[in-house]
C-alpha cells in the first residue's frame, strides 16, 4: 500500500533558488538561511520518499488570467522548468508519475474535489525552489513529483478549510493505491510577506511563530483562519500559507516534528520550513 509518511512545509522565495544556482549559500546574507536547511537535507537523504505530491502556486508561468484553475493536478511524465523571464533555472527536469496522478485525479474528483487535469505544465519557483531546498543540486531529482497547483494569485483563492479537506482526500486516495510507496506531501509558500502596495515588506514574526507552533498540534484551528485574517496578519502573499494545510491534512492526526527553521529576511519574505513524520 502507498502511504503518506512525510510532510514538508516551506517558503518558495525565488531568490533562494537564485542563491543556490549561483553558489551563494555561504555568503553572509544567505548563510544563516542555508544553515537551517542543512538539517532538512540530511533528513531527506535518510527519508527518501518515492513520490512527492507538491502543493504550490503557479506565479503566472503556466497559467495566466485567461485560465485560473483553483486546484490543478499535473499528470504528465515530465514537467519542464518554466522560464520566469530570465531563462529556465539550470536544474534537472521534474519527472512525474502519471499512473498515480491519474488515480489521484479520479479519486479526488469522485470525492467531490473538482480538480483541473493538466498534461502540459511548466513548473516555476513555487515548485522548484522547495525541491532545491531539500534536495540541493542533484544530477537528477531522486524522486517522482506530482505537482498540485493552487490558485492563490487571483481572488478568490480556496479557503484554508478547503485546502485542509483536500489534504485529507489526498491521504485517502494515496492509501487506496496498491503499491508499496512512501509518499511525502509538500505545502509551499509563505510565511508572512507582502510584495506590493502600502504594506510592501510586511513581516509578522509573532504570527509566523504561532503558525509553526500550531501546525502540528492544532491544524483544525488553523483551518478556520479566514482569508481576511491571513491578509491582515501574514500580508497579501502570506495567503500562500493555505497550501501548508494541504500538507497537514494529508498527514496522520498525530505527527512528530523533525525539523524547523525560520529566518528573516529572504528577499522581502519571512522564510519558514517545518518537517513532520506521521504514521
Ligand atoms: C517572492 C515571490 C514569491 O512567490 C514568494 O512566495 C516570496 C517572495 C519574491 O519575489 O521575493
Ligand atoms: Fe509565491
List the helices and strands and how they pair.
Blueprint (H helix, E strand, L loop, with lengths): L1 E9 L3 H8 L9 H17 L3 E6 L14 E4 L3 E2 L14 E2 L2 H13 L5 E3 L6 H11 L8 E7 L9 H16 L5 E8 L16 H13 L1 H4 L4 H8 L9 H7 L5 E11 L2 E9 L2
Parallel strand pairs: 1-8, 2-7, 2-8, 3-6
Antiparallel strand pairs: 1-10, 3-7, 4-5, 9-10
Helix pairs in contact: 1-4, 3-5, 5-9
The site of fe (iii) ion (FE) has 7 residues, from loops.
CATH class value: Alpha Beta
- What is the spatial order of strands in the main beta sheet? 6-3-7-2-8-1-10-9
Number of domains: 1
Q: How far is the first residue's CA from the last residue's CA?
A: 13 Å
Strand content: 15-25%
Rounded radius of gyration (Å): 17 Å
> Mind telling me which CATH architecture this is?
3-Layer(aba) Sandwich
Run of helices and strands: EHHEEEEHEHEHEHHHHEE
Tell me about the largest β-sheet: 8 strands, mixed
Mean pLDDT: 98
The number of E-state strands comes to: 10
Number of helices: 9
Instruction: Choose one word for the global shape.
Output: globular
Instruction: Give start-end ranges of low-pLDDT stretches.
Output: none
The CATH homologous superfamily name equals LigB-like
Secondary-structure-derived class: alpha/beta
Q: What helical percentage do the residues reach?
A: 25-40%
CATH fold category name: Protocatechuate 4,5-dioxygenase, Chain B
Amino acid at each position: 500500500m502507498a502511504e503518506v509518511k512525510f510532510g514538508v512545509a516551506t517558503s518558495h522565495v525565488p531568490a533562494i533558488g537564485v542563491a543556490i544556482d549561483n553558489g551563494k549559500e555561504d555568503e553572509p546574507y544567505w548563510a544563516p538561511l542555508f544553515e537551517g536547511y542543512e538539517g532538512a537535507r540530511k533528513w531527506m537523504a535518510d527519508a527518501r520518499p518515492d513520490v512527492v505530491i507538491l502543493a504550490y502556486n503557479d506565479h503566472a508561468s503556466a497559467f495566466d488570467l485567461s485560465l485560473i484553475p483553483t486546484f490543478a493536478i499535473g499528470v504528465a511524465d515530465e514537467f519542464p522548468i518554466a522560464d520566469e523571464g530570465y531563462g529556465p533555472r539550470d536544474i534537472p527536469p521534474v519527472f512525474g508519475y502519471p499512473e498515480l496522478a491519474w488515480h489521484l485525479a479520479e479519486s479526488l474528483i469522485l470525492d467531490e474535489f473538482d480538480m483541473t487535469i493538466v498534461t502540459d505544465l511548466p513548473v516555476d519557483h513555487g515548485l522548484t525552489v522547495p525541491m532545491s531546498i531539500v534536495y540541493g543540486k542533484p544530477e537528477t531529482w531522486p524522486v517522482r513529483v506530482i505537482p498540485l497547483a493552487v490558485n492563490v494569485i487571483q481572488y478568490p483563492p480556496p479557503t484554508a478549510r478547503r485546502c485542509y479537506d483536500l489534504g485529507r482526500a489526498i491521504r485517502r486516495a494515496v492509501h487506496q493505491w496498491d503499491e508499496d510507496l512512501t509518499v511525502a506531501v509538500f505545502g509551499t509558500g509563505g510565511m508572512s510577506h507582502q510584495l506590493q502596495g502600502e504594506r510592501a515588506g510586511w513581516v509578522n514574526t509573532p504570527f509566523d511563530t504561532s503558525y509553526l507552533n500550531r501546525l502540528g498540534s492544532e491544524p483544525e484551528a488553523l483551518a478556520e483562519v479566514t482569508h481576511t485574517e491571513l491578509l491582515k496578519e501574514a500580508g497579501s502573499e502570506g495567503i500562500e500559507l493555505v497550501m501548508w494545510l494541504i500538507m497537514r491534512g494529508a498527514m496522520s492526526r498525530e505527527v512528530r516534528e523533525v525539523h524547523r527553521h525560520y529566518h528573516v529576511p529572504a528577499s522581502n519574505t519571512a522564510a519558514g520550513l517545518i518537517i513532520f513524520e506521521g504514521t
